[in-house]
Amino acid sequence: MSLVATAPPSDGPIIAEVDMGADSSAPVVRATVVQASTVFYDTPATLDKAERLLAEAAGYGAQLVVFPEAFIGGYPRGSNFGAAIGNRTPKGREEFRKYHAAAIDVPGPEVDRLAAMAGKYKVLLVMGVIERDGYTLYCSVLFFDAQGYYLGKHRKMMPTSVERIVWGFGDGSTIPVFDTPVGKIGAAICWENRMPLLRTAMYGKGIEIYCAPTADSRPTWPASMTHIALEGGCFVLSANQFCRRKDYPPAPEYVFAGTEEELDPDSVVCAGGSLIISPMGTVLAGPNYEGEALISADLDLGEIARAKFDFDVVGHYARPEVLSLTVRDHPTTAVTYTASSAAAKTESSQKK
Questions:
Q1: DSSP H helices in the chain
Q2: pLDDT at 23
Q3: Mean pLDDT of 71-80
Q4: Main-chain phi, psi angles of 320, to 5 degrees
Q5: How far apart, in Å, are the Cα atoms of 10 and each of 13, 14, 151, 168, 195?
Q6: Which residues belong to the active site?
Q7: Locate the CN hydrolase domain: which residues (predicted)?
Q8: What pLDDT is attached to residue 352?
Q9: Are the C-beta atoms of residues 156 and 139 closer than 8 Å to each other?
Q10: Which is it for strands 293-300 and 14-19: parallel, antiparallel or unpaired?
Q11: Are 231 and 313 in contact (CB under 8 A)?
């Protein structure tokens, strides 16, 4: 296996590509994970940046491109939204108003633009967004095919710690695995990758390319990604933002709680660490902690069968008579209107 570094243009991101030495009997897919920062509170500018990065990745032959968690809408790193037990501040409420305004409706015009980008550059696109559903926000991943069609979404099931102040909880209806021309693709976001039952639900759907958009740049993250690749017998593509303090609004508009006094504009507040791992646990590209980058590898899909020869977690290595999982995959809503349900059933029966 050889590591091939492709020299970028002087003003472009770094690209690392890995030749897996694949044979011609199995498909090979060029995948790219994007490591870059949001233009915070400016969704149109972030969409423009996403298109530039997508065009560049496509220019290097990418067929699948994965963006970080919350790339559209922004990851509110360091903010506590003025919340404490028993108290919320007016400034924190205004922060939430601005954050809500930067989120996107799904479906909506921003989704239409992302779909058009995927079709224009002929790539399968996996994009981390902040989804707005009324006045509740969700940390979501959107999927688009290379023909420019929106496929669906995954909502983060379990926001971590203070994220729960501003993000809702996804349910079992948005744990998709899409069968695409480049393989079966799904996603789990950041620390929900640590949830064994969620991973098992995705393995049960036959996931082959496991996307893991994240905000975790700590040195322990690659170990988690390697474990998932080995456990699931799948490729793992983890994309994180690389951010400096200057990528967020300045104080006092935006404050990194507890650390603001220690930061200067060039201080790194998220160091990236994006990487791609094979089903055998080999790191194919990354982790990159140097700056914004496009990190690419050629995925030999034959490696999936080679890995599952001796460990298929929901197949020949499973013991369903002893251990099994039931997934409640129906949508959950706070309010159900019985008259509407009855009308829908009547209309359905009339069509038969």
A1: 43-59, 90-102, 109-121, 196-204, 221-232, 302-308, 338-351
A2: 56
A3: 96
A4: -65, -20
A5: 8, 10, 35, 41, 41
A6: 69
A7: 29-301
A8: 57
A9: yes
A10: parallel
A11: yes
